Amino acid sequence: MNQTKTSMAAAILALLGTSGLAAKPATPTAPIHYDADHKTFRIDAGKITYAFGVNDDGILQTLYWGSRLAPDDAVGNATPPKSRSAFDAIGANTPQEYAGWGGPITVMPDLKAHFADGNRDLILRYQNYKIDDGGLQVTLGDKAAKVSVILRYVADPATGIIGRSARIENHATQVMTLDRVAAASWNLPAATDYSLRYLTGTWAAEWHVRTRPLTPGATDLESRRGSTGDENNPWFAIERGGHWNESQGHVWFGALGWSGSWNIHIDQDVLNQVRITGGFNPFDFSYRLQPGEGLDTPVFYAGYTDDGIGEASRLMHRFEIARILPEGPKPKLRPVLYNSWEATEFKVNEPEQERLAEKAASLGVERFVIDDGWFGARNSDKAGLGDWVVNREKFPNGLKPLIDKVHGLKMSFGLWVEPEMVNPDSDLYRQHPDWVLNFQDRQRSLGRNQMVLNLARQDVRDYVFNALDKLLTENDIQFLKWDYNRNWSEPGWPQVAPEEQQKVYVTYVQNLYDIMRRLRERHPGVEIESCSGGGGRVDLGIMGLTDEVWPSDNTDPSDRLSIQDGFSYAYTPAVMMAWVTGSPNWVNKRNSSLDFRFLSSMQGGLGIGANILEWTPAEDATARSYVEAYKGIRATVQQGLLYRLLSPQERAPYSATESVAADGSQAVLFAFLRQGQEAQAYPTIHLQGLDASSRYRYRTIHGTVAPGTPAVASGAYWMSHGIDLGLRSDFDAAAVVFDRVNGDR
Ligand code: DGJ
Description:
Layout: H1 8-16, E1 32-35, E2 40-45, E3 48-54, E4 60-67, E5 111-115, E6 125-132, E7 135-142, E8 147-155, E9 162-170, E10 176-188, E11 194-202, E12 205-213, E13 217-223, E14 235-240, E15 250-257, E16 262-268, E17 274-280, E18 287-289, E19 294-296, E20 299-305, H2 308-324, E21 337-339, H3 341-344, H4 350-363, E22 367-370, H5 400-408, E23 412-417, E24 421-422, H6 427-431, E25 451-452, H7 458-474, E26 479-482, H8 504-522, E27 527-530, E28 548-549, H9 557-570, E29 577-580, H10 594-601, E30 605-608, H11 617-639, E31 641-646, E32 654-660, E33 666-673, E34 695-702, E35 712-714, H12 715-721, E36 732-740
Parallel strand pairs: 21-22, 21-30, 22-23, 23-26, 26-27, 27-28, 29-30
Antiparallel strand pairs: 1-2, 2-3, 3-4, 5-10, 6-7, 7-8, 8-9, 9-19, 9-20, 10-17, 10-18, 11-12, 11-14, 13-16, 14-15, 15-20, 16-17, 24-25, 31-32, 32-33, 33-36, 34-35, 34-36
This protein binds (2R,3S,4R,5S)-2-(hydroxymethyl)piperidine-3,4,5-triol.
C-alpha cells in the first residue's frame, strides 16, 4: 500500500495507537476550536457546524449540529437540564456526547461496565482536551473507578463529515468488564417530525430502502451475525419535516466503520430528543480489560445537509472516495472484468478458462478473474475450502500458464478466495478441527456446508495470512475476490478462559483487518473485492482496506436497478461492481435484452459474467461497443456526482440516474422502463447538477430522444426544459451522454 496515502479511519486509529491501519499518517482535519470562557468545542467543516460543551456537572453535552453558523455566532453554554419529575432526575435526559451507565441516566449509555468489586456505576466527566493536526481528543474519566475514555473527533473539511471513536482505558487495579461499548452518540434536538431511513435485505435481495416515522421509543439497526450482514446495513439517515426529497430538506446521516456484529440504537426520549448510539453490538458481548489495558472502538461517521437525501448520499460518496478508500483521494477506476462464475460455476479448467480469456480480451475486458473451484478438492460447495493449493486435475501445470496467457492478452489476473472458512471435508479441518468457532462438545452448525475459522486465534490468523501471502508471492496476481459465505453460529472459543471468549467479536475483526492490511503492504499492486455471498459485508471498515465490493449475487438487471439504487444511499458507485450475465437470469428466470443488461451494469463498475463462448457474432459486436462506450464514461459514472432522478424502489416502473463528472465536463443519463404504461410517454427527464450557463452536446449510447431535441443546449435548458426519451416497451433502456462543448466553462 502506498504509505503516503491515508484515510480518515486510518487517522483515527493511528492517533489512538491501535493496530489495524495505524501505520498510515494522520489525515488533515477541519479546524476545531475550544472556547475556554464557555467551555465549548466547535467544529466548522464543509457546510456544517458541530458544537458541544462541558456542563456544570462536568458532563459533555451536545449543543448544536446543523448548517454552518457565522464564526462569531454563540453556540450556547452547556447547562444541566432541570429535573422534570421524580422519575427524570437531574441530568437523566442530558444529551451527552458519550455517556457512562451510572448516576441518574436513563438513556441508552455508550459505555456500560462492571468491576471485580461489584461496582457497576460509571460517571464520565470531562478531564482535558488536546487539539492537533489529527483532530480533537477529549478525555473523560471516572476518577473513583479509575477509568478513562478518550474521545476522538476528526472532521473532513470538504464534506463536513465527522468521524468519532473512543478508547476505553482501565487504570484500576481490578478487572473491568465492558458490557456495552459504543463508538459515539449523535444527538438531535427535540422535534416531533423526524423520520428514519435505513437499508434492509437478504441474500439476492439486498439494499431495500425503508422509511419509518420516529416516535418516542427505540429502533435498533444491527447485525448479530458476526459480520456486517445484509439484514440491516450500518447506515442511517434521519429527515426532519416529514417530506423525504432528493434535493431539499434537513438530513442527518451516518455510517459505522465495523465489519463485525454492530448496533445502531436510535432512541427518541420522552422529551422528543433523538439519540443515535452506534458501536459494537452489546448482544452476547463482553470484553474484559485487565489493569492497564484499553479497547478502541470502531469509527462512527456522520454528516448533515439541508439539501435533501440526494445530497446526503453525494457527501457520503465524496467522503468515501477521498477519505475511506485505501487508494483515496484518487482511487483507480474499476477495470472492466470478466468472471465465469455464473457460466461455469465450479467446473473451471485450464483450456476453457483460456478460451474464455481470449474471448473476453476480444470484447475489451481488462481483468480476468477465476472464481470458486480452482483449489483443493473443490468440485462443489461440499469440499475443499481451507486448502489453498491449486487443483492439479483442473490446472495440471498450476495457474502460471493461464496467468501468462491472461497477461499476454493485456488483462490483469484475479482469483477468488474465501479464506475465513473451512469445509469439514478438507485437509485443513481434518488437521485442525479445533480451529473453527465452536462450543466444547456442542453441535457445529453448517452453512453452505462450511464452518467459520476462528480468526481471533493467532495461529489461525497466521495460517490465513501465510496461505494468502504464499499464493500472491508464487503467482502474479493483481486482484483477490475475497468471499465470505455464511453467518456465525456457536461463537465459542474453547481454548481461552470462559470469561475471555466473547472477545472473539472484536479480535476476529481486528485480525481480519490486520491480515488485509499486511497483505496490501506486502503486495502493493493487489486489489481486493469484499464479497459476502453478495452484499453481506459492505461497510466503511472493510472499505478502508478493499478497492471494490460486490453488492449482490442477484445479477438480474431489473432487480439490480433497485439493489444499486439502495446501495447508492450509503455507498459510492466507485466501488459497486455490476455484471452482465446470461438471459434468462438464474435468479428469477427473467429474460432481458443484452442492451438492458449492459446499461443496468454500466451504472457501476462494469463486469461480464455470462458464458461469452456462447455469444453470437452480433452479441459480441454489441458487447464490444458497450465496453468501449463505457470506458469513455466510467470516470463520470464511478467517481462523479450521482443524482437519483427516478426511483426504482417498490418495483416502480421507471428508474433514472444521472452522474456528473467532478469537473462538470460530462453528464451521463441512464433511463430504464421496467414495464410500459399503457400509451403513456416516459416522464420528461430534468437533469441536475449542470452548469446552467455552459453548453452541452448530447449523444446517445442507446435509445432515442424525442424528435426536435436540440443537439446542443445550455445546462439551464437540460435542467429546466428537460429531455424526452423514446422508451415505450417492457425492459427498455436508454443512455445519453452530455459533453460540455469545448471552451464552455
Ligand atoms: C458467492 C459469491 O457472491 C459469488 O459471486 C461466487 O463467488 C460464489 N460465492 C462462489 O462460491
